[in-house]
Amino acid sequence: MAMNRRDFLKVSTSASGGLVLSLSLPGCATVDTGYSENAGTWRPDAWLEIQDNGNIYFTLARVEMGQGTYTGLTTLIAEELDVEPASIKPRFAPVAKEYLNPAYKLQITGGSTSVATSWEPLRRAGAEARYMLMMAAAKVWQVETDNCSTQDGRVVHPNGIDSLPYARLASLAASEIPRIEVPLKPRSEWKYIGKQMKRLDAEAKATGTAVYGIDIEQPGMLYAVVTRPPRYGAKVKSFNKADVTVHSGVKDVFEIERGVAVVATSYWRARKAQRALQVEWDNDDAITLSTESVFHHYYKDSEQDAGVSEREDGDYAQAEEQAGKVLHADYEQPYLAHFAMEPMNATAWYKGDAMEVWASTQAPDLGRIAAARGCDLSPGDITIHTTFLGGGFGRRLTNDYIEEAAAVSYRMKAPVKLVWSREEDTQHSPCRPAMLHRMRAAVSGNRLEGWHHQIVGPQILDWYITNAAPAQYPWAPKMLYNTLGRVGLAAEGLATPKDVSAIEGAIDYPYQVPNVELRHTHSDPGFPITWWRSVGYSHNGFAVETFMDEIAHELGEDPIAFRRARLQNQPRHLQVLDRVAEMSRWNSASASGRAKGVAVFQSFGTFVAQVVEASIEGSEIKVHKVWCAVDCGQVVNPSVVSDQIKGGILFGLSAALWGEITLADGKVQQSNFHDYPVMAMHNLPDVELDIVDSNEAPTGVGEPGVPPVIPALGNALFRLTGVRQRRLPLKASS
Question: Where is the Aldehyde oxidase/xanthine dehydrogenase a/b hammerhead domain positioned along the sequence (predicted)?
């Protein structure tokens, strides 16, 4: 029997003679495949299900949080299966090894990897299933398989007239085995990939039928809120339970690992009773940080520890020694909140020997570990039901809200929905880390001879490994969870992936400079952190592209010409830079009182150049227009790419203009939109987007719009005012 050269499908025959196929991924034993006569369903692989009644289901292994996976990934499988994407019904994947993200070896949606990692596997799954259906029809007609064709969910006879629907062929196709490597469609035959199509989830979201975590209802459900310590690390010493339980509808008030839970028959009854709760905190282990002390420690650590060398080209020390001038600049960037539209929430139902959890999570396998921490069950006894997410931005990779819901349900032995308020979300969520960048450049005459970048700050994996490591070994007893985390950290870069969260976007500095040195000084103040949209690229983009602008100014060169001269061996950088220069009419003067700034940056495999035009009106910065050129390889859906790049631009501008979580005596000072503003309709700039038509493999689009817009705005303000701002957020006057 001729097998697929790429070993994409493992093939075995069941006792009944039906074909059983599963994806060639680690531990492919958790998803049933083959034909079920009772259900009238054929599952050719872990993603597709074709029913005798004509329904086609696609198991979506990446969650939908607004970034378009629901549409984009469905389009990939629909293209090769030769059906309209709208005819496929996506459903969210359960926790199973078949659905691991190969970029992380975890079931994670993040890092703008969804389309990139699914590009070939999903198309190949659709192509294999389509060919098996053709084989089945060919047997019925007694013709050669390769003389058949398909069209819109039907196999077409070689005569071009007769046809059979996939639904009637499903049971027969289950016994077929492809004896060739099924070719994928050439680009010239694509019907759906690269075409502008409406989002498949648009109607459900517009009509309110899309189910988010916060929408979940269960029979007899209770509602919980949690009062957490205002300073991270504090513990409960005592609380006035009797004063709270007298409130109407309150079922119980008790301590959990992260604070004090109030459980009631409705959310608003729980909130009302919470107002009467008074907790005395044990602050012995609580942090006492201030924003000023964080950066004081960063500067101190940077001077005492030169850091780990992450990249060394040439000899920067010698270049600096021989330089005619050495430029210095320090860039400070604050902690940032995520502010997803849907606050953190989860519903858990402890049933004695099992638990079900419904949650908006970017990492259902890690959510299962978090739930196990909150009860007496093993991960295998816990089922995670993933819903639509009302925004993620990396926050929903940390599943603390699931752990809380599980702990409360375990205590109550009932279904419990736990909801964080916006204020709790702001003051108790982990943030994007504050970072310090210390830059030096060796300049001789009009030549940039050396580039030195010292990054000072923590690594996100240090805060994430406690659940990530156990998720890879769900059979391990809970007593080993923390040990697995410590082992994971110790094995970083060896048995586990290297944590590049602090250095990504800096280690692949693209400019041609003979002497380049990058170092990371690990400094962790102890404030909880997690991933944030574009992660390390967000802060490294600001430092790298602002300092490049400073050097260009020092050398008296035009910012784009300066970059172009040093990107001659980077054709994709150059292409987007040239396109944005043309779009923005860079060499033409701006209107009076306005100025333009530029930045070009690669993140998540995608190349983005942006020009921002801004002014200062009274005491406010006004962003008038953003021009953006993007090369993300092959585009699956231009509409989704446009939405995500533009959304990333607005997300980045929010951070550039207002984003800042500040600390005083260990307490977060912000609480809601009034003191942590985000981009509102009246602030929106005009955004003009140019997408490169590329044959390269697709890369990420959810995050690459963020990093360049922040330095581009800062560079525009410098050209406008002559004052260089090196600390975010940017100010109208400094």
Answer: 207-285
Q: What are phi and psi of 490, to 5 degrees?
A: -65, -30
Three-class DSSP labels, 521-558: EECCCCCCECCCCCHHHHHHHHHHHHHHHHHHHHCCCC
CA atoms lying within 13 Å on the CB side of residue 465:
20
- Based on the fold, state whether residues 321 and 361 are members of the same structural domain: no
Amino acid 377: pLDDT? 96
> Does pLDDT of 11 surpass 60?
no
Show which of 197, 222, 238 is a domain's final residue: 197
Q: Beta-carbon neighbour count of residue 303 at 10 Å?
A: 11
Examine residue 292 and state whether it is found in any structural domain, yes or no.
Answer: no
The per-residue pLDDT for 476 is 84
Range of weakest confidence among 7-11, 357-361, 680-684: 7-11
Determine the average pLDDT of the residues in 430-438. 98
Same domain, 327 and 349: no
Q: Whole-model pTM?
A: 0.93
What total number of domains does the chain contain? Answer: 3
Structure tokens that stand for 124 in this block: 């190949």
Q: Are residues 647 and 706 in the same domain?
A: yes
At 681, which amino acid appears? Answer: M
- Is 178 part of a structural domain of the chain? yes
Are residue 270 and residue 412 in the same domain, yes or no?
Answer: yes
Q: Given the structure tokens 């289950």, which residue do they identify? A: 174
Q: Tell me, what's the pLDDT at 678?
A: 96
The answer to whether position 69 is within a domain reads yes
Residue 540, domain extent: 315-335+432-460+499-721
The CATH number for 395's domain is: 3.30.365.10
Structure tokens at 129: 């299933």
Write out the two tokens for 476: 């391990």
Cβ–Cβ < 8 Å for 553, 448: no
- Which residue pairs from 375-380 have beta carbons closer than 8 angstroms and sit at least 24 positions apart in sequence? 375/350, 375/406, 375/407, 375/409, 375/410, 376/410, 377/350, 377/353, 378/474, 378/477, 378/478, 379/470, 379/471, 379/474, 380/474, 380/475
Domain for residue 467, yes or no?
no
pLDDT tier at 493 (50, 70, 90 boundaries)? low
Q: CA dist 640 to 29, 200, 202, 566, Å?
A: 34, 11, 12, 32
What's the CA gap between 225 and 227, in Å, rounded? 7
Domain end marker among 387, 419, 451: 419
**What tokens appear for 46 in the block?**
């872990």
pLDDT above 50 for 18: no
Give the Cα separation of 123 and 119 in Å (integer).
Answer: 6
